[in-house]
Amino acid sequence: MPKSDIEIAREATMQPISEIATKAGIPDDALLQFGPTKAKITFDFLDTLKKKRDGKLILVTAITPTPAGEGKTTTSVGLHDGLCRIGKNSMVALREPSLGPCFGVKGGAAGGGYAQVVPMEDINLHFTGDFHAIGVAHNLLAALIDNHIYWGNKLAIDTRRVAFRRVVDMNDRALRQITNSLGGIGNGFARSDGFDITVASEIMAIFCLSNDLDDLTERLGKIVVAYTRDRKPIIAKQLKAAGPMSVLLKDAMMPNLVQTLENNPAIIHGGPFANIAHGCNSVVATKTALKLADYVVTEAGFGADLGAEKFFNIKCRKAGLKPAATVLVATVRALKMHGGVAKEDLAKPNVDAVKKGCANLARHIKNVKSFGVPVVVAINQFSLDTKKELEMVRLTAKKMGAEDIVASHWADGGKGTEDLAKHVVKLVDSGKAKFKPLYPDSMPLEKKVRTIAQKLYGAKDIAFDASIAKQFKDLEAAGYGHFPVCMAKTQYSFSTDQTAKGAPSGHTVPVRELRLSAGAEFIVVVTGDIMTMPGLPRVPSANSIYLNKKGQIEGLF
After folding, report:
1. Which of 131, 195, 311, 382 is catalytic?
2. Which of 101, 211, 341, 523 could form a disulfide with 106 if both were Cys (CB 3.0 to 4.6 A apart)?
3. Per residue in 108-124, pLDDT tens?
């Protein structure tokens, strides 16, 4: 029986983080250490990198996720190790896992098999406290809003129009809608409220899109927290909230340095979800990696219709990044599920199902190429994959003008991605990338949403009621029309119906809600029945997580 991810991680021989830093060109005095195997990189050192030449940026994305697993983070880590094995100066920049999915469905998000970042348990749990700082900073602002109302409400906040919810980094459906300030006069004025998960917080988005502490403070002050009765916006700066929030986030803003199982440096920082937020690690982390390495591997959450779209249209647009290549991860198992095979039948060979499911792969290839970025398909190999099934994937990729490379990094680590690494280097160094976002800043907000739905989701159109139509117009009139849009949509389908596998076309994307993120500088477009506070599944991963008699964590995977 193969070893579990946590068993493999526990057996790893980790090097002191100072030695990992030396490999990356980071001196000891630039580290703020959290024990022997993890550290933050200080801003004083980051300032010295500004004049260095940037390396080349490689995005790892995936087909539409299924319960069979695709292995995007695993492939990111494996590709990084593979690049190091072939003699390249590489760095990987990843997101931090949220406790919600760790105790909900996924059980962990630090890679898998022999392509992991370590210390795995720390990374999956509290790590260096970044998410705690983000959650506390967010809830400080929420507390300041209600405190201001309690002590006279000089800004004339309409309590029916408070637009800033609270957060917690856990899947807890009971908190989606609440009534706060109950219990009498001393507790304030009762009003409707609710919680989102921390990774959907605008503070998380600001944290990940800010270039430095000054930029962070400026963005925090721009958050629209509420409106007056005559619909005038109230911003966080008016509550004098930006300063104390920045203080709480000061240390968290420093990127985190860890290592892979093969003792190669890795930066892990920030962690917005891609189905309800923009799905990319911090700009600070990515830009730091680009200064330290010739090739930088990064990943964006869920399928390319979500994570990659937002990476290109939001992160790259705002941070001035120019990706050189994209790796699109697929598995035969997942393609079978898109072809209609049930999870319990995935072990049986089924070329016809793979062929049918490859419609999903084909659309993702087309979508990524529409951004002007060359793409290679990485087939994350499983032991039961047959030659005929792999050949079907190869034929689809070839038909769409992309190469495919079989990679065995889960079982073999960096050795299993050497061919992929060589092809990625060739692709990057070819200079074929002509990156451009899908839409210009000047495009009206409604048209931006429609463009994404039609060009990337295969939809016939979008649908919304009169109140949403008015919101589109009001946001543009208020000066936010140039913002990109951040689609909140199920990750399990190109449509808003999570059961519609493969590549559905001709559907309608219903727009349920618009949320202004003035500090993050995008508009969140909530579609279908997607929730910004997830719930735990019937049998959560938490049920299998415990401490054994040695005091070691069991159940993370």
Report:
1. 382
2. 101
3. 789 999 999 999 999 99
As a whole number, mean pLDDT of residues 502-530 equals 97
In the chain, domain spans: 5-128+252-429, 131-247, 445-527
CA distance 2 to 275: 32
% pLDDT > 70, the chain: 100
Active site residue 74: yes
The answer, yes or no, to whether residue 1 has pLDDT greater than 80, is no
Q: Do 5-128+252-429 and 131-247 share a fold?
A: no
Q: Is 164 helix (H, G, I), strand (E, B) or coil?
A: coil
Residue pair 117/258 in contact by the 8 Å Cβ criterion: yes
Q: Is 95 a catalytic residue?
A: yes
Task: Give CA–CA dist 53/56, Å, rounded.
Answer: 10
Looking at domain 131-247, its CATH class is: alpha beta
Q: Strands across the sheet with 224-228, in order?
A: 157-162, 224-228, 233-235
Q: Is 410 a catalytic residue?
A: yes
Structure tokens at 61: 């994305």
Does the domain at residues 445-527 carry the CATH identifier 3.10.410.10? yes
Active site residue 302: yes
The single residue of 302, 311, 371, 464 carrying the catalytic annotation is 302
Classify 234 as helix, strand or coil: strand
8 A C-beta contact, residue 199 and residue 169: yes
Alpha-carbon distance of 172 to 523, in angstroms, equals: 24
What is the reported pLDDT for 513?
96
The class (CATH top level) of 5-128+252-429 is alpha beta
Residue 479's nearest CA partner among 441, 423, 432, 438 is: 441
CA-wise closest residue to 130 among 170, 98, 171, 165 = 98
